[in-house]
Design brief:
Blueprint (H helix, E strand, L loop, with lengths): L2 H21 L5 H4 L6 H16 L3 E9 L7 E9 L3 E4 L13 E3 L3 H4 L2 E7 L14 H12 L2
Antiparallel strand pairs: 1-2, 1-5, 2-3, 3-4
Length: 149
């Protein structure tokens, strides 16, 4: 899959997530201030779509870096790595030092500021939450809207 195609898909998925959040009377906490705090959920939604529609190898990359505002705190962030070489991030603009809504590429000075301490599979079970509506319905709505684009 070409980087340009990934960028088009990632941009569309982000826009659909933004629309679903703004149209919904209720969304669980991780999406309430999208893109802030929404990196993991959004990455799983996009990653599932890529896996199911395009059968690509995709994992969540989980990184941390020191917070610029407090020396005793860290910022955590999650983005996707596709086919082991391409970073795909639809929520990096939650940070002050990144302004683009969507990043897709092989090299990123921004992502290099994070120490990757975990990689996780992209699984639908992550979107299901005990005691809440979860994010499964958001994923299904994204997939439905993507099918009509």
């Amino acid at each position: 899959m070409q980087v340009s195609e990934l960028k088009t898909i990632a941009t569309s998925v982000r826009k659909i997530i933004e629309n679903v959040v703004s149209e919904s009377s209720y969304v669980d906490v991780e999406l309430q201030s999208f893109p802030s705090g929404a990196c993991e959920v959004s990455s799983v939604i996009l990653g599932l779509y890529l896996k199911e529609k395009y059968d690509v190898n995709v994992v969540q990359s989980v990184g941390k870096r020191p917070s610029p505002y407090c020396e005793y705190s860290e910022n955590n962030h999650v983005w996707l790595t596709v086919n082991e070489t391409v970073f795909v991030d639809i929520t990096a603009d939650q940070f002050d030092d990144f302004s683009s809504k969507v990043f897709v590429g092989r090299d990123s000075a921004f992502h290099d500021t994070f120490e990757v301490y975990d990689t996780r599979p992209v699984e639908f079970s992550y979107l299901l939450r005990r005691g809440s509506e979860g994010y499964g319905s958001v994923y299904k709505e994204v997939a439905t809207r993507m099918a009509s684009t």
